[in-house]
Amino acid sequence: MKFPCEYSLKEIAAIINCDYVGDDNFPVQGMNEIHVVTPGDIVFVDHPKYYDKALQSAATIVLINKEVECPEGKALLISDDPFRDFNKLTLHFKPFQQLNDLISDSAEIGEGSIIQPNAVIGNHVKIGKNCLIQSNVSIGDNCIIGDNVIIHSGTVLGGDAFYYKKRAEGYDKLLSGGRVVVQDNVEIGTNNSIDRGVTGDTVIGEGSKLDNLIQIGHDTVIGKNCLLASQIGIAGCVVVEDDVTIWGQVGIRSDVTIAKGTVLMAQCGVSKDTEPNTTYWGTPFGEVRTKLKEYAAIKRLPEIVKNIK
Question: Where is the UDP-3-O-[3-hydroxymyristoyl] glucosamine N-acyltransferase non-repeat region domain (predicted)?
Answer without folding.
Answer: 26-90
